[in-house]
Amino acid sequence: MVKLNRQRKRKKFKYTTDRQKVRQRAEKNLKFNVKVDCDILKASWDNRKSLKANMSALGVAADPNSKVKSGKLKFVAMDLSEDVEETPKEKTEAVQKLEKVAAVKKPPTFRFSLEQVKFISSMMDKHKFNFKAMSRDPNNHYQETPRNLQHKVRKFMSIPDHYVPYCRERGLLESVQLKDDAEQTNISVE
Questions:
Q1: Mean pLDDT over residues 38-54, rounded?
Q2: What pTM value is reported for the model?
Q3: d(CA 127, CA 125)
Q4: Which three-class secondary structure state does DSSP give residue 9?
Q5: Which domain holds residue 36?
């Protein structure tokens, strides 16, 4: 009897694949080996359940791209059963903790490098706020556009760690320094 090609293909041994690595990769994706990095979710995670079951029990969406039932179906269902009111789901403890963590705003940590600070401050010294002149300057080695330079200068001015020393060196913050000096002398006299 002649065997089908499909049957023969199934029985062929693949010399190029490492079966041990394939098995290890498959074991990584088992529901018992799910690694949860978030401490809030880890506290109430059940390894005996699947990922979807755990996420639904915690009140968190397992797949953010899953389709939501359309409003049309809800409208038809409401016509059929007028006395049944949909109550909003209560938030679980995990969701409440996650919302508290998400509500806390972290301060921005962006800083320019020393070379960038020198470049921006020299451009501001030469050209003030004339960004077209900055873009044509021979020291603009990276050929940044006026718009790019404008964004950099605004960002530079929004970071106090960069802008305050720049202003102090140029004598733009003398009034603040005088007030600080006056306060220090009053404290030392008393």
A1: 88
A2: 0.47
A3: 6
A4: helix
A5: 19-63+91-102
